[in-house]
Structure prediction request, 85 residues.
Amino acid sequence: KIDPGDPLDKNIYDLPPEELANIPTAPGSLDEALAALKNDKEFLLKGGVFTQDVIDTWVEYKIKSEINPVKLRPHPHEFMLYFDI
Prediction:
């Protein structure tokens, strides 16, 4: 089990940048999540749950089939902003 640590009982929007830099954050997109997984996958290799090859293949599949196609198209909001120009 993973210990999540003590809860943060402060408003993070009021923290100074120096203190905010010490607060861990979660990835903000699938692209960032896969990059984080590439850099920290040891926990998935323990006990033979997954092999290195399975993880690498899955990450490459997600990049090729989901991330790259999305990067080729405008975001719906972006489309609405510029469609009538």
Observations:
- The longest helix spans residues 52-71.
- The mean pLDDT is 92.
